Amino acid sequence: MNDALISTLGLVLCLAPGLVHGAELISPMLSRWVINVVLPVFGPGVPRADAALSHDEQIAMLDAARAAGPAGKDAAADDYVFLMLFEQRQGGIAFASVVVGVVYGLGLSLGARAPLHLMFGVMSVLFALVNANHAGLPGLGRHPRVSRHGRHVGLLFAPFWAAAAVLNVLAFTAATA
Q1: By the 8 A CB rule, do 43 and 152 touch?
Q2: Is residue 28 within 8 Å of residue 89, measured between CB atoms?
Q3: Rounded mean pLDDT of 66-93?
Q4: pLDDT (0 to 100) of residue 42
């Protein structure tokens, strides 16, 4: 495999989160398509309409989380629910930006891609560690509510992101040689 192909594969693998989560920049509530369509595949299973969350059900769940806040801490409870949705939207924005960076980078020479490979290499290493953590390996913090589907995502995507990391590190090394 030559350096140009390694570089291209390293960049293309980093499109995955943008393709899945990019729409959340419009509305954090669009995360339900991931919940309804993508995560059931990791069950393994098939998405089912009777198991899908609706927009109204999402709102009811958020209202319930807000209502479960401690007495006298209404502003903090409001801010917590806001922050969850805000961060969801910020993630969608970041992933859409990654897509733009990858698409732009594919038109650059290998040497000019070095900064992208550095950034995507770091991102891929951290994604691999987080997914391994969700799969059950200790390290890089703790997610207190990993679902069955979330664990399966971790099992499958830790090696995916490890491969992306290796490709981006190799491409960065070749681009800076």
Answers
A1: yes
A2: yes
A3: 95
A4: 84
**Residue 90: predicted pLDDT:** 96
Q: Domain range spanning residue 41?
A: 3-175
The tens digit of pLDDT for each residue in 162-176 reads: 999 999 999 999 999
Contact 88, 20 (CB under 8 A): no
Higher pLDDT, 149 or 112: 112
Q: How many domains does the chain have?
A: 1
**What DSSP string runs through 52-113?**
PPPHHHHHHHHHHHHHTSPTT-HHHHHHHHHHHHHHHHHHHHHHHHHHHHHHHHTTS-TGGG
Confirm if 23 and 33 have CB atoms less than 8 A apart: yes
pLDDT number for residue 95: 95
- Residue 138 is predicted with a pLDDT of 86
Q: Terminus-to-terminus CA distance in the chain, angstroms?
A: 17
Return the DSSP state at 47. -
Residue 31 neighbours by CB under 8 Å, 6+ apart: 21, 24, 88
Please tell me what DSSP assigns to residue 44.
S
| Joined tokens for residue 172 | 């960065």
Give CA–CA dist 164/27, Å, rounded: 28
Average pLDDT estimate for 107-119: 98
**HSE, side-chain direction, 13 A CA sphere, residue 132:** 15
